[in-house]
UniProtKB/TrEMBL annotation:
Known cofactor(s): Zn(2+)
Name of encoding gene: dnaJ
Assembly, per entry: Homodimer.
Domain of life, per lineage: Bacteria
Native source species: Actinokineospora guangxiensis
Residue ranges the record marks as coiled coil: none
Protein name: Chaperone protein DnaJ
UniProt lineage: Bacteria, Bacillati, Actinomycetota, Actinomycetes, Pseudonocardiales
Entry remark concerning the domains of this protein: The J domain is necessary and sufficient to stimulate DnaK ATPase activity. Zinc center 1 plays an important role in the autonomous, DnaK-independent chaperone activity of DnaJ. Zinc center 2 is essential for interaction with DnaK and for DnaJ activity.
Alphabetized SUPFAM superfamilies for the sequence: Chaperone J-domain, DnaJ/Hsp40 cysteine-rich domain, HSP40/DnaJ peptide-binding domain
Length: 387
């Protein structure tokens, strides 16, 4: 990206957020627009594809803390009405070099310019070839949904991804096969040119080659000379056992291609786990609520409860209270260290909505037989004490 892009483009407006927006708001806006504009959702729509690229470019800058800081500083300086070579502000003759000012400020231990010196070092560095140094590709994020059982056990899922990628025809050079980019005559391959405006002298990316140092005179027909094309590819993604809802999985080198021979970015796959109709999850343990009757808890019983694999028998001792949690070892989520979590079974007493005469008579007899038993002996005393 040229320095002029940093100054002229409004990446905040591209994402529809304020320049004061937090990282979470920026990320939320990008993910919403990316879903709406994704080529898969708009097949054949060139306008949506162009907007998708613009939104991705904007997020690549203001979605990165360091790049956003540099971008804000550049727009604050230039966007505030200050332009090199203006008629006012600085008097005196001779050439004036930004780099000299910022270097002197830093050498003197001053901090008035903050990170602006570093910013101009990045955008207007005058060393030959600095504009063409390798630049790592941007990271890409996508989403996948799996069911509860796949999250517990792990799964291998195909992932269809549409994103910028290195052109297969020219292998990223941008030139038609059999030809090569030529050295830019205007900048001599440096990618930067020196300009003087009024009292100022500064360097900026070469307009002829856009800071690349080379010009493609015979462009590749497939990518139009960009070296990058948007294409759809299918990846096989291994979802590890025990993955949690909203967890991100990193696939190194599967993001956008790098520039000038740099490594590609990474692909982050955000996993959404569909809930299970019976089981829940608490860390590495699975949870299960099992309805039981009062006689089963009072007299004791043996229950057959389901697991993700099969069923197990669970002994309930006489006199067990409702909401008691029983643990079944080794029937939970597989941990990274090879161990397995447990199944936590909560016993919940169910009360019949209606009773026939025989059941009602039996309960009345039970009530008479246990009339001397007070299940709330301390409740009144505790209330009185609290007053």
């Amino acid at each position: 990206m040229s320095a002029r892009d940093w100054i002229d483009k409004d990446f905040y407006r591209e994402l529809g957020v304020s320049s004061k927006a937090g990282d979470a708001d920026i990320k939320k806006a990008y993910r919403k627009l990316a879903r709406e504009l994704h080529p898969d959702a708009n097949p054949g729509n060139t306008q949506a594809e162009a907007r998708f690229k613009a939104v991705s470019e904007a997020y690549g800058v203001i979605g990165d803390a360091e790049k956003r800081k540099q971008y804000d500083e550049a727009r604050s300086l230039f966007g505030g009405g200050f332009r090199p070579g203006g008629a006012g502000g600085f008097g005196g003759g001779g050439n004036f070099d930004f780099a000299d000012v910022f270097n002197q400020q830093q050498a003197a231990g001053g901090s008035g310019f903050g990170g602006i010196g570093d910013l101009f070092g990045n955008l207007f560095n005058r060393r030959a070839g600095s504009a063409t140094r390798p630049k790592r590709g941007a990271d890409v994020e996508t989403e996948v949904r799996i069911d509860f059982t796949e999250a517990v056990r792990g799964a291998t899922v195909p992932l269809r991804l549409t994103s910028p990628s290195t052109c297969d025809t020219c292998h990223g050079s941008g030139a038609r096969p059999g030809t090569s980019p030529e050295v830019c005559v205007n900048c001599g391959g440096a990618g930067l040119v020196n300009r003087s405006q009024g009292a100022f002298a500064f360097s900026e990316p070469c307009r002829d080659c856009r800071g690349k140092g080379t010009i493609v005179t015979d462009p590749c027909l497939d990518c139009g000379g960009d070296g990058v094309s948007t294409k759809t590819r299918t990846l096989t993604v291994r979802i590890p056992a025990g993955v949690e809802d909203e967890q991100r999985i990193r696939l190194a080198g599967q993001g956008e291609p790098g520039q000038n021979g740099a490594q590609a970015g990474d692909l982050f796959v955000r996993v959404h786990v569909s809930p299970h109709p019976v089981f829940g999850r608490n860390g590495d343990d699975l949870t299960l609520k099992v309805p039981v009757t009062f006689p089963e808890l009072a007299l004791g019983t043996t229950l057959t409860v389901p697991t993700l694999d099969s069923t197990v028998s669970l002994r309930v001792a006489p006199g067990t209270a409702s909401d008691r949690v029983l643990r079944v070892r080794g029937k939970g989520v597989h941990r990274r260290d090879g161990q397995v979590g447990d199944l936590l079974v909560t016993l919940k007493v169910t009360v019949p909505a209606t009773l026939d005469e025989a059941a009602k008579a039996a309960l009345e007899s039970y009530a008479e037989a246990t009339a001397d038993h007070d299940p709330r002996p301390d409740l009144t005393a505790l209330v009185e004490k609290a007053r």
